Amino acid sequence: MSAKDIGARLQEERLRLGLSQQQMADAGRWHRQTQLNYERGYRTPKLGRLRRLDELGVNVEYVATGKRYGATEPQSPESLKPPAPVMSPEVQQLHREHSEGSLLENYRSLDAVGRRRVELVAMLLAADVATRDLVLGALGADRPFITAAVAGGGA
After folding, report:
1. Which domain holds residue 134?
2. Which among 62, 120, 141, 143 would be 20 to 30 A from 150, CA to CA?
3. What percent of the chain has pLDDT over 90?
4. pLDDT of the residue at 33
5. What is the CA radius of gyration of the chain?
6. How does pLDDT run across 3-38, given as a tens digit for each residue?
7. How far apart, in whole angstroms, are the C-alpha atoms of residue 93 and residue 13?
8. Mean pLDDT confidence for 83-100
9. Which one is predicted more confidently, 70 or 93?
10. DSSP letters for 73-107
11. For position 45, which CATH number holds?
12. If phi over 0 gives left and psi between -120 and 50 gives alpha, with beta otherwise, what is residue 65?
């Protein structure tokens, strides 16, 4: 499959779902220019990046292979927002204080390597995609651990 073919199918899926390039880029956690480059066939997204679009209803198998293996129901970006909290504001505050206290207590119990890993994961979870990719590329022995932690945390 050529980059142009994949880009055309990615654009086709975006248009089928009624999304703008910016909405697709936001869902994929990349820049709008990157989305444009994908659609023009200048770059090819890695499968891991494409899988982020599955939640929007993008048929990732079709984009990657050109074959439709199953219908994918489109979802609006609004439907992907987390549900409203069911706890009262007071209970939310108590929960947050307890969670933060436990997190800090656990952090303090770690050795220097564990603390370094937690700091890296927190930094990467808060970073934009370009910074995350840059830092992950520079990691040494901690890379498998940090990559798994960040992937599990939603980046």
Report:
1. 89-153
2. 62
3. 23
4. 95
5. 19
6. 899 999 999 999 999 999 999 999 999 999 999 999
7. 41
8. 67
9. 93
10. ----GGGGSPPPP-S-HHHHHHHHHHHHHHHHHHH
11. 1.10.260.40
12. alpha
